[in-house]
Amino acid sequence: MHSRQRKLEQKADFLNDPLIRDTMPPSQFDALKALTQKPLSPEMKKDSNTAIEEFKRAQSNVKRLWDAGLLIAARTDAVYPGDSQGEGLHHELELD
Fold this sequence. Notes:
With 96 residues, the chain is mainly α.
């Protein structure tokens, strides 16, 4: 197996989590699984890296707000690939 494909499959290990399968409609799960098996285009890779950096900044900002004594609440407003209502929110609450 090509090393790049192996890396993509390792990143998709989260699909083995029962919480993912139990909280996601089967059609969405199948579509997400298929998506994780496709290599990223250069544009998608750039967008992914940008999103990761933005997420890290957001995490840092939430921590600063929490440390300053502000109440932090979580909610979900939409389903997008890789996130399902339920599991996605639970995962968000776990992150620090």
